[in-house]
Amino acid sequence: MRIVIALGGNAMTSSDGRARPEDQAQAVAQAAELVADLVVAGHDVLLTHGNGPQVGNLLLKNELSASVVPPVPLDWCGAQTQATIGALMLSALDGALTRRGSDRRSAALVSRTLVDAADPGFTDPTKPIGRYLPEDEARVLIEHGQHFVEVPDRGWRRVVASPEPLECLDGPAADTLLAQGYLVVCSGGGGIPTVRRDDGSLSGIEAVIDKDLTAALIARQTSADVLVIATDVDSAVTDWGTAHARPIGEVTVAEMRAISRDQGFAAGSMGPKVEAVTRFAEQTGGTGIITSLSRIAQAIEGHLGTRVVPDPPVPR
Ligand SMILES: NC(=O)OP(=O)(O)O
């Protein structure tokens, strides 16, 4: 089976969201053991990852040191997070595969995602990045032109432009590596936002793409059977945060769209995860899963997690 797994950037930080190197290395090492188990079981795996906390930290470092070293644009920060997290993942994955006696190896691609320069996401920033701030600190930065949203129980978080992903430009290379037996790390942080200019040339553009939506795209482009969005809960739930909260198990595309319409899921959080797995099931006929990292194998076998499956054919 060909499986695409999306690992959240928040899963690679401590609860304070600071993304210390040791927290990230530990989280990646844990994830690598579980992913290696799937590879040894005979699956082809493409792993993608978030970068919200990491790209926010890099952007802030750029801004703080701008009078000393030339700052780089946000898409360069995104590329840097792909390299750093990718390198961590390669060593962790290859180590886990070797310990299991597997001779399969991993490969990480610096990878771009095509977006439309006219996407409304450029004028309405929605993607939360970086650390959480108290309201008074956020208000000062808002006065200086930055955009923030309040995240319940966590604090205030900066938001940046986040256009829709249209095409994973390096998808064919990922497909080739998968066919050669590599465990592929690709499209980290949603991919480096890239636009095609009128003359046909490609160039980066400042934004952070939602990695769950890009995961659905790369899963489609590489003909995956299953897309797993790995997060910190076993399932998406209805009526989240209330006494009526219930886990969502196996649902069809139409059922999941109805649940989304009726109650909504948090933007920048469960919302894009639900949209990603629903799109994937709708567009490919595969299964889209939301579950926690430690439950991936059970969810793929159909035992738990939120599993979105295609609608049954309409009888004639
Ligand atoms: N780029 C992105 O969606 O990252 P997170 O999953 O860390 O928010």
Describe the overall structure.
The chain is an alpha/beta fold and 316 residues long. The protein has a domain at 2-116 and 164-224: Carbamate kinase, CATH 3.40.1160. Helices cover 38% and strands 22% of the residues. The strands form 4 sheets. An 8-stranded mixed β-sheet has the order 3-9-2-1-12-16-17-15, sandwiched between helices. The radius of gyration is 19 Å and the shape is globular. The relative contact order is 0.15. Bound molecules: phosphoric acid mono(formamide)ester. Phosphoric acid mono(formamide)ester is lined by residues 8-10, 50-52, 189-190, 208, 210-211. Keywords: Kinase, Transferase.
The helix-strand sequence is EHEHHEEEHEEEHEEEHEEEEHHEHE
Gap between N and C termini: 31 Å
Largest sheet: 8 strands, mixed
Oligomer: single chain
CATH architecture of the domain at 2-116 and 164-224, by name, is 3-Layer(aba) Sandwich
Beta content comes to 15-25%
Q: What would CATH call the class of the domain at 2-116 and 164-224?
A: Alpha Beta
Architecture blueprint of SSEs:
Blueprint: E1 2-7, H1 21-40, E2 44-49, H2 52-64, H3 74-99, E3 106-108, E4 112-114, E5 127-133, H4 135-143, E6 148-151, E7 155-160, E8 167-168, H5 171-179, E9 183-185, E10 192-196, E11 202-204, H6 211-221, E12 226-231, E13 237-238, E14 246-247, E15 250-252, H7 253-263, H8 270-284, E16 287-292, H9 296-300, E17 306-309
Parallel strand pairs: 1-2, 1-12, 2-9, 3-9, 4-10, 12-16, 15-17
Antiparallel strand pairs: 4-8, 5-7, 6-7, 10-11, 13-14, 16-17
Helix pairs in contact: 1-3, 2-3, 6-8, 7-8
Phosphoric acid mono(formamide)ester is lined by residues 8-10, 50-52, 189-190, 208, 210-211.
Domain Aspartate/glutamate/uridylate kinase: 1-291
Pfam families: AA_kinase
Protein name: Carbamate kinase
